[in-house]
Amino acid sequence: MQVLVLGAGVVGVTCAWFLRAAGHQVTVIERQSGAARETSFANGGQISVSHAEPWANPGAPRKVLGWLGREDAPLLFRPRASLQQWTWGLAFLRQCWPAPTARNTCRLVALALHSRGVLKQLRAQIGLDYEHVERGILHFYTDHADLELAQKSAALMRSLGCERYSISTQEAIAVEPALESWRDRIVGADYCAEDESGDAHQYTVQLAERCTAAGVRFEFDTVVERMLVDNGRCIGVQVAASNASQSLTASSMVKTDAVVACLGVQSPHLLAPLGIRLQIAPAKGYSATFDIVDTARAPTVSLTDDEHKIVFSRFGGRLRVAGTVEIGGRGLELNTARCESLTRRAQQLFPGSCDFSEPRYWAGLRPLTPSNVPYVGASRVAGLYLNTGHGTLGWTMAAGNGQLIADLVSGRPTELALPAVVA
Ligand SMILES: Cc1cc2nc3c(=O)[nH]c(=O)nc-3n(C[C@H](O)[C@H](O)[C@H](O)COP(=O)(O)OP(=O)(O)OC[C@H]3O[C@@H](n4cnc5c(N)ncnc54)[C@H](O)[C@@H]3O)c2cc1C
């Protein structure tokens, strides 16, 4: 079968790999001039089954209200006169009730657990090396009430098959000695030894090279303008080449047997004309990357700092700190307050570890659904499949979701049950 994959982020490239492995003729269409140049460029690097809980949960509304208007808030809702934004916001609130939260948590953990296993297999099979670290994820707390809630979450995670354990401050420092200077402030932690971390950009670029070697075609600098539908079936896309200044040249049609949309935050816009209304909001996040100057003072284990809701991942000689969510707007401009708070916190926790004078700041738009659960499966339009809306967990879920879509497109049974139609 001929299959078009739209988008060469971590989700699209991984999906292309599994489709090719299943024997299909695969072409990937991407508007940038290379893979992983948008949201998959500089994320937090965590493969975090242990944090596959949705942002929408019973405690979220109170927290979000409390953070309103605070420029450095971990989750900042910037109210705008946008119907789309308010519809998304109301849907988010509906997902905060206990029953949807429980349902979403089960689904997310299942997808993430499956995906982490598939990633490990893929790495063993084709030997990818993207500065990954298999030393787990350590989540540390500085507030007793938050720690107590986390202990409940850890128990829930274990009941769903994720080995996340609550540990003492002393045990946490034994796992990551670079936290020693914070011994008096940390009140406890939880640890999931099976989780891992790695540079999603390096992974995606390397996997794209392997895809090319295996016969996948990449059409870079090519913009998908619209989907082509005939008799209720998706038969391809209309594309236009873009030059370096992104101005479009004449359009052409690309026909195919099946299309997989992996377009991140752009997915709703391209699929709306087909009657497919995806609830995906751009949830802006930031990262800062530093060169390490004293390896002993820099963490190796991937960390989550609960107080600031940010993560740390070590990529060889670099330390990445990432996080914060900002809903409202699609701009990628760097907000100084949010950027500087990342550097300040990294410096506080790991003084002397990095050259903090030259941070490399970056912002990306997570494709976030109100429930955090991505759209993975067949759409209501025959021949069109969705693999998008992965929000805070796109790197964590890319491998497993790519494999699920490849099985679905090939008419094979999928390892996890997928809904008959996802949107
Ligand atoms: C600060 C931050 C930290 C994060 N940390 C983590 C983490 O630790 N762990 C984790 O699992 N996830 C993390 N994430 C989330 C993760 O990065 C995303 O979920 C993931 O990158 C989404 O991948 P994607 O392939 O769906 O989207 P993208 O990477 O954005 O790919 C979509 C592609 O589609 C292309 N495209 C769009 N429109 C068109 C068009 N019309 N024509 C052609 N091409 C088009 C784009 O150019 C893009 O390359 C983080 C995100 C951020 C912002």
Q: Can you give keywords for this protein?
A:
423 residues; alpha/beta; nine-stranded mixed β-sheet; six-stranded mixed β-sheet; 31% helix; globular; binds flavin-adenine dinucleotide
Characterise this structure.
The protein is of the alpha/beta class and 423 residues long. It is built from 10 helices and 20 strands. Strands 4, 5, 6, 7, 14, 15, 16, 17 and 18 form a 9-stranded mixed β-sheet that branches. It has a 6-stranded mixed β-sheet with strand order 9-2-1-13-20-19, with helices on one face. A 3-stranded antiparallel β-sheet has the order 10-11-12, with no helix packed on it. The longest helix has 29 residues, at 98-126. 50% of the residues are buried. The mean pLDDT is 95. The chain binds flavin-adenine dinucleotide. Flavin-adenine dinucleotide binds at residues 7-12, 29-32, 37-40, 43-46, 48, 223-224, 262-264, 266, 270, 285-287, 311, 322, 364, 366-367, 388, 390-396. Flavin-adenine dinucleotide is lined by residues 7-12, 29-32, 37-40, 43-46, 48, 223-224, 262-264, 266, 270, 285-287, 311, 322, 364, 366-367, 388, 390-396.
